[in-house]
Amino acid sequence: MYLDPDVSHAVKILIVGHFGVGKTTCIGSLSEIEPLRTEEEITEASEGFDDLSGTPHKKTTTVAMDFGRLTLSDSLVLYLFGTPGQERFKEMWEELSRGALGALVLVDPERLHESFPVLDLVESFGLTYAIGVNHFEGTTEYPLDEVREALNLTADTPVARCDVRDERTSAQALITLVEHLMSQLG
Length: 186
Fold this sequence. Notes:
By secondary structure, the chain is α/β, with parallel strands linked by helices.
């Protein structure tokens, strides 16, 4: 992908993943502006829809999208769109995927089985993607090659470890995606 340094480019990137994986937190750690968040408290109405077993302390959930912006250079700005993680909002994913150049797919290695529907959606929309393995404090740190194998990823799909609360590691996962996009388009 050639980017003319004299021309400004705005690139739409999706931050996706299953319910409670850290999408809102990731955008919050990366955005240079106050992120737009559409979070609401989890209520009894979500019973039977949202599985809170993997995130027992979760009190809010994204109901539309998150939005942030990150300037990488004078000529390249990333617009970050976070999708809601619940299956019932998958129609919104299709709308958000329009015009997106790629996706950073966040996964929780303790709940990899929840990532397969997300990967199916990203692939059905034809998006180039990279995997961000969100390492939660107090959990096992699995080798990335084991995560790759468990997710049945192709050898060329980038996989990076991150802690979405940490700007540095979140940025590295995003850079991994941007480098992958540049290699695919260029």
